[in-house]
Amino acid sequence: MNYKLPPGFRFHPTDEELIVYYLQNQAMSRPCPVSIISEVDIYKFDPWQLPEIAELGEKEWYFFTLRNRKYPNGVRPNRAAVSGYWKATGTDKPVYSGSNRVGVKKSLVFYKGRPPKGSKTDWIMHEYRLADSITHVQHHSMKLDWVLCRIYKKQHSSKTLERKVEDFHGQSNRTTPNEASDKQVMRLPSICSLTHDLLQLDYFGPISQLLIESSSSNLWLPKHLVDGEA
User: Which interval of the chain is the signal sequence (predicted)?
Assistant: First the structure.
């Protein structure tokens, strides 16, 4: 690299900034604010090779690419790469600067193999082109126009989801001391609230006897109530 970036520099431009400050300058042979986007024919490489030749980037990489025609008499670009091809997905999205339409953003996915039986990969490309780029193409040339490409690999969240499910089951199976004591007395919440002193009163005698007899059946009686009648 023949440039020096300030400490803590991060390159996270918006769609508008990519077109207005970088792609427009590249198309008109003017210098960009920072020379950190390389001119690379990305179709001569597979996407996993591109991070090694990028000027900058950790999880996403930027390139200027001069698109080529697929057919001499058309404007359809050639999307074939070394061991696969790029396939458009979704619809093109306009990019605005204020109220002005300055460009178009296209999303593509890389497939290994030959169409139409290629194998889909996790490599994604966002291709930015100027709004009026096709109208300036020379008909006698196989070259189309300059585009700016942002390439990255989609990250799966299956491991994160799996971890969340495991944590949920772990918490649901975990019992706190308070929860354990609540489960022990929930069979007779109103009767179990009686204290030892109340059970010793004469007019609570029948109830006390009933509770003691119930302890030998399916009903569970807290131990301190039974001991009070022993």
Answer: none
